[in-house]
Design brief:
single chain, alpha/beta, Rossmann fold, five-stranded parallel sheet, two-stranded antiparallel sheet, 7 strands
Length: 349
């Protein structure tokens, strides 16, 4: 595809991001590009896909006399993470000092931002600007956040920053104030179901389950569609949650020990499990506030749900900070209220 017009008729090839792509199309058309954009929304909602596509459009416009070519070698290289003028900064990435590369970290370190600052001062190789995607800003160490802020306050010429954020309330206000803000919202459940059925020929029951468990996040829906183990984890964890709500302390402690035992070899899986706990309780709050109690199987009160959500959120933060996993999960099991059945039902699919 080769075009020099970005408008409502232009296909960004991104599902469910029409609001964001329309805004960025106007930015391109009006030649009003800022120096930093902050895309915020839930995990797997499409923030990285949007940033990468935006980079492809800008780079190919530079190289093809203002025309957009998403099928060009340069656009393909960007998608593969191989184009020299577009780089992603993420947790555990490389630093200038080789000794720092041996340090395993779950955060974006100060040495990575210092490397970014150095690269930002270099002239681009092929395009008119260097583009850096920081994925995700939530993962910045405190020192790294302040270094990034300094860069935003004194932006180098010919540099464009895309900041990807999950929890915008956790980001320094001074960082937010120096960026163009663009919220990326999950798509409506019905729209996601329609896409799954039409585009991927998913059967009605599976599409309904994927749309429910993915919470409108297209990237997560694709993970579930392409990897059956992701869907199996959702169903398994939701079943465990329901079993444990009315369980005794011994059964809850056994679960904590079993889950914590996977931490060393399966950290991401444990964190994904905790996120599913958070999603399940968030769903119950939604059902309760929307008077959809027929969707729930337990006699829940708002106070119970908020207590559980706070406990799960603390546990997730503690795990990210490498607190003893068994202790963190045991505390969560103790703090989550015991809830009796309201009626027989099944909400985990």
């Amino acid at each position: 595809m080769l075009t020099n017009i970005v408008g409502n008729e232009f296909d960004w090839r991104l599902e469910g991001l029409d609001f964001a792509t329309n805004i960025l199309s106007r930015v391109i058309n009006h030649k009003s590009l800022g120096h930093a954009y902050l895309f915020h929304g839930p995990k797997s909602v499409g923030k990285f896909s949007l940033a990468s596509r935006f980079a492809q459009i800008l780079v190919t416009q530079d190289l093809y006399d203002g025309r957009i070519n998403l099928d060009s070698p340069e656009a393909i290289a960007i998608e593969r993470g191989e184009f020299p003028d577009v780089e992603t900064i993420s947790a555990g990435g490389i630093c200038d000092d080789s000794k720092d590369d041996d340090v395993r970290s779950t955060r974006i370190r100060i040495c990575q931002i210092r490397r970014l600052q150095r690269l930002a001062m270099l002239a681009p190789f092929q395009a008119k600007r260097r583009i850096f995607i920081i994925d995700i800003v939530d993962d910045l160490q405190v020192e790294a956040s302040h270094a990034l802020l300094k860069m935003l306050e004194e932006p180098p010429p010919n540099v464009l920053l895309f900041l990807l954020v999950q929890d915008i309330d956790a980001i320094l206000p001074t960082i937010i104030s120096r960026c163009q803000i663009l919220p990326i919202n999950p798509m409506p459940k019905n729209k996601l179901i329609e896409i799954l059925e039409r585009q991927f020929e998913t059967d009605e029951i599976t599409a309904e389950q994927i749309a429910t468990f993915s919470r409108g996040c297209f990237g997560r829906a694709m993970d579930m569609l392409n990897d059956p183990s992701v869907m199996m984890l959702q169903k398994s964890v939701r079943s465990d949650i329901e079993d444990l709500l009315n369980a005794g302390i011994n059964q809850r402690m056994d679960y904590a020990q079993s889950l914590a035992s996977n931490w060393r070899q399966g950290r991401d899986s444990v964190l994904a499990t905790i996120r599913i706990w958070m999603e399940w309780w968030s769903d119950q709050l939604y059902f309760l506030t929307k008077s959809e109690k027929n969707e729930a199987s337990f006699d829940l009160k708002v106070e119970d749900i908020l207590t559980a959500l706070r406990a799960i959120d603390r546990t997730y933060e503690h795990l990210v900070l490498n607190v003893n996993p068994q202790l963190a999960i045991e505390v969560m099991m103790l703090e989550i209220p015991s809830v009796p059945f309201a009626k027989q039902g099944n909400i985990h699919g």
